[in-house]
Design a protein that fits this description.
Layout lengths: L2 E3 L7 E6 L2 H6 L10 E4 L14 E6 L5 E7 L13 E6 L2 H5 L8 E3 L2
Parallel strand pairs: 2-3
Antiparallel strand pairs: 1-2, 1-7, 3-6, 4-5, 4-6
């Protein structure tokens, strides 16, 4: 199982990886929700067109440091973040609970 943590995360969070073009295009479309989070890599923007629920979006730089966190309602188009290399998505409200905020570093663990 793949998980992620930050300095503020009380316990590891389940993480799905979207590393292929097809997986990134699909993202969270068609789902009712997600247990944990989805990491799109590489990516620097997202949209919520066709989504069924609001999401939190964290934009990460090349060292997995959080550049910004935004909540996006369904039907929105996010602008590209120039320094972003990855995007972490989760159900709205999740990032705050996990301590994912600007400046935090995300650590991914496989296995």
């Amino acid at each position: 199982m793949t998980t992620f943590t930050t300095d503020g995360t009380p316990e590891p969070v389940p993480l799905e990886l979207a590393a292929t073009a097809r997986a990134r295009r699909r993202g969270l479309l068609g789902r009712q929700g997600i247990e944990g989070a989805l990491l799109l890599t590489p990516a620097n923007s997202v949209h919520t067109l066709g989504m069924r629920f609001a999401i939190d979006v964290a934009y990460l730089d090349r060292s997995s440091r959080v550049l910004a966190v935004r909540t996006m309602r369904p039907g929105r188009l996010g602008l590209p973040r120039p320094r972003a290399r990855q995007v972490l998505e989760a159900e709205a409200g999740s990032m705050e609970r996990w301590g994912v905020r600007r400046g935090a570093r995300i650590t991914v663990r496989h296995g």
